[in-house]
Amino acid sequence: MEHLLKGIGVALITPFQKNYKVDYKILENLVEEQISGGTDYIVALGTTGETPTLSDEEQKEIISCICKTVNKRVPVIIGMGGNDPARVIKNIENTNFENIQGILSVTPFYNKPSQNGLIEYYKKISEASPVPVILYNVPGRTGTNMLPETTVKIAKTCSNVIAVKEASGICSQAGKIVKDGPSDFAVISGDDGLTLPIMSIGGAGVISVLANALPKHMSLMVHLANEGNFISARKIHIQLLNFFKILFKEGNPCGIKALMEIMGKASNVLRLPLSPISKELYNDIEKEIKKIL
Question: Which active-site residues does the annotation give?
Answer without folding.
Answer: 136, 165
